[in-house]
Amino acid sequence: MPFPPGTPSEFVIRALAERLSEKLKQPFIIENRPGGAGGTVGAAAVAAAAPDGYTLLATSPGPLVTAAAMFKNLPYDPAALVPIAQLFESPQLLAVHPSVPAKSLEEFVLYAKAHPRTINFASPGIGTFPHLLGEMLKTSAGIEIDHVPYSGPAAALKDVVAGHVKMYFETSTLIIPQAEAGAVRVLAAASETRTERLPDIPTTRESGYPEVVGAFWSGLLAPPGTPAEIVGILNAAANEAMQSAEVGNALTKLAARRRTGSPEQFREFIAGESGKWSNVIRSAGIRTP
């Protein structure tokens, strides 16, 4: 995993690893390899590993779909990593601090237009989905809001709850507890359908912004050159493990949905996501060294 320990998705990945160990009679060990920008150090380590099926990458979109558009000299080729299976997705929720008077996304846009450059929005880092969704909303709604990047979701959410930052797109597993405590107000779900945990909250599409959609997702990949036979074995085992009760319980805690399928389907999904988010990055002028 190319991120520090304790991320919400790690609970799902650890439950998956236990089921894979049982299924394939091999110990699956989770190694957190954070570093670089957006998980690129861990992704590079897997890209350089032997293509024998014993070193795999369990990752969110960053190292796969946004890194190539943002960084000039990546130490690996994201397109060369071999897709095994998409695992799950979790909707991103648009939340605001209660001091913002808007009760809906429509009202928020009107407020932001009436008070330009007074609303700032948080993200766990430049080029992350919360950042890109904020840029998409900024462009789609024609509003002037300022981006404030943080070192991770915990730091970003802390400042939103404190009122230092007024708006934040983040996964439901982090936002819902704060919403239930009254610390933030959820205005919309940036997903195709409403989230089960918040059935009364409309989607961004229902709120008039159909293009502002982006779920957090995770998938399993292998080093370049991994034989199709090995990929097939791992795909079948991962799809079966994702149906287990233990993984299901972890998904429920994450407010996430299963997204299993074939390696080819995952490859096509990654390609679509890469095109979509690369366009957002270029349009927003996001660039790093």
Defining traits:
289 residues; alpha+beta; D-Maltodextrin-Binding Protein, domain 2; 2 domains; 9 strands; 16% strand
Task: Describe what you observe in this structure.
This protein is an alpha+beta fold and 289 residues long. The protein folds into 2 domains: 8-89 and 215-284, Bordetella uptake gene, domain 1 (D-Maltodextrin-Binding Protein, domain 2, 3-Layer(aba) Sandwich), CATH 3.40.190.150; 92-189, 3-Layer(aba) Sandwich (D-Maltodextrin-Binding Protein, domain 2). Helices cover 43% and strands 16% of the residues. The protein is built from 10 helices and 9 strands. The protein has helices at 8-24, 40-47, 62-70, 105-114, 129-141, 153-162, 172-180, 228-242, 245-254, 263-284; strands at 57-59, 82-90, 92-96, 119-123, 145-149, 167-171, 185-189, 216-222, 257-258. A 5-stranded mixed sheet has the order 5-4-6-3-7, with helices on both faces. It has a 4-stranded antiparallel sheet with strand order 1-8-2-9, sandwiched between helices. Strand 4, helix 5 (129-141) and strand 5 form a beta-alpha-beta unit. Helix 1 (8-24) packs across helix 8, helix 3 (62-70) packs parallel to helix 10 and helix 5 crosses helix 10. The longest helix has 22 residues, at 263-284. The model has no long low-confidence stretch (mean pLDDT 93).
SSE layout and pairings?
Elements: H1 8-24, H2 40-47, E1 57-59, H3 62-70, E2 82-90, E3 92-96, H4 105-114, E4 119-123, H5 129-141, E5 145-149, H6 153-162, E6 167-171, H7 172-180, E7 185-189, E8 216-222, H8 228-242, H9 245-254, E9 257-258, H10 263-284
Parallel strand pairs: 4-5, 4-6
Antiparallel strand pairs: 1-8, 2-8, 2-9, 3-6, 3-7
Helix pairs in contact: 1-8, 1-9, 3-10, 5-10
